[in-house]
């Protein structure tokens, strides 16, 4: 019997499974957690960015990443580190409307987030050894998923925005009476920036950019060393993707609560 005929014979004798899977574990829990986590974060971000309030602490120059860069005439002048070269925004429009689409594009086209929302929202597939409800699969070759291929360009934009967040964290070392100051808000801002850089550097596009198209690593020792370091971060890409969502929300919430006067910033210097 030829190999193709043998394969067809095995296929005919394979058991017909009526259900979606024979798995008896809670395979649906991970997709459910992903849905809850992402939806909760998006709701929080939409509400906070649409309120146009409690984004700036004037005493210590704390600016939330959700409002950076604040370049609208609606912003408090001191919070506009890059100037105000856009007119006043109507209600509900985020102050960081210039950068938010690029950050959203970077996250949406991220290789990990693709896996996360493909499995959890589209059930394509929801888990290993679980059939999906879709009968056809076109991959990422047609509209709208073909736009996933521009991830590298969103990576460049994310690097520029990370520089802006770094600048904001440096400006925040401002004491209440002028000069250098340091408080809990600075720790939170710095931790957020460091983790954002780690997440950005752990991106698959960054790894390809650093070490891609090299035929001989031995002839490029510097790039090889950089590629190894980025590869180590790349192994933690999923963890950093979730951690940075948490630090972004924490940073915004802390600055918002201090700005609203719910509590005062814990100061270590000045």
UniProtKB/TrEMBL annotation:
Spans through the membrane: 27-47, 92-113, 153-173, 179-199, 239-263
Keywords recorded for this protein, A-Z: Membrane, Transmembrane, Transmembrane helix
UniProt protein name: Succinate dehydrogenase
UniProt organism field: Fodinicola feengrottensis
